[in-house]
């Protein structure tokens, strides 16, 4: 793998990846972290790849602009919580507090990202455990454990042993979206597939799941723009 920079305002950093299986040039922009990867056949000259990039520059810049810039979490930044933007402000006491349209975080400014992430994870666990318990009880099938991660490829998963995993960033989405993901994963306790029977279980647990799924498809990637110093 190599790295090149497409000049301009701003310059774009692009990872070059050669593949023996590739038959043509392939340009990919990750909506999760904004990384740009150009895959090219093993023997294709790099100059040809750069020419291809220049042809695609307008498309690439348009998509990067629509994605929006990453947000460094800290005092003064705005962060979504339960689907609404909140301003991060200095707080008093020992714990983070949600007050109106603000998230008040105590402690030194450099501790704000870690404190806020810890609070968001705790809030996510409470909400996802409640939703998972409720849907599991309605289905009559217990799950074995619940874990949280900061996954980039999926919002949740269910193992064959009944273990549920969720992205803690779901707490930043509207509550109905979080609840849909919980219903989706609990439904896998009954149907470990995405067959019509599976979606019937999701509808039984949640109702019309299509708007929430559409929100995740259209808006979900934006939740990964928020950087907590990682």
Automatic annotation (TrEMBL):
It comes from the Bacteria. CDD domains: M48_yhfN_like. Residues 25-218 form the YgjP-like metallopeptidase domain. It holds the Pfam family YgjP-like. This is YgjP-like metallopeptidase domain-containing protein. The lineage of its organism: Bacteria, Pseudomonadati, Pseudomonadota, Alphaproteobacteria, Rhodobacterales.
């Amino acid at each position: 793998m190599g790295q090149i920079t497409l000049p301009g305002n701003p310059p774009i950093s692009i990872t070059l990846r050669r593949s023996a299986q590739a038959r043509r040039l392939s340009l990919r922009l990750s909506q999760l972290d904004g990384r740009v990867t150009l895959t090219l056949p093993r023997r294709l000259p790099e100059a040809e790849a750069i020419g291809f990039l220049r042809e695609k520059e307008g498309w690439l810049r348009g998509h990067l602009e629509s994605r929006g810039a990453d947000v460094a979490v800290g005092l003064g930044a705005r962060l979504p919580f339960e689907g609404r933007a909140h301003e991060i402000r200095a707080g008093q006491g020992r714990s983070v507090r949600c007050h109106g349209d603000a998230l008040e975080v105590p402690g030194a400014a450099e501790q704000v990202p870690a404190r806020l992430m810890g609070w968001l994870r705790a809030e996510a666990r409470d909400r996802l455990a409640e939703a998972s318990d409720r849907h599991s009880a309605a289905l009559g099938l217990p799950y074995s454990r619940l874990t949280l991660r900061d996954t980039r490829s999926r919002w949740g998963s269910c193992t064959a042993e009944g273990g549920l995993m969720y992205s803690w960033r779901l707490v930043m989405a509207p509550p109905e979206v979080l609840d849909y993901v919980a219903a989706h994963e609990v439904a896998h306790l009954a149907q470990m597939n995405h067959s019509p029977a599976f979606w019937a279980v999701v509808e039984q647990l949640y109702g019309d799941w299509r708007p929430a799924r559409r929100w995740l498809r259209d808006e979900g990637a934006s939740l990964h723009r928020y950087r907590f110093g990682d």
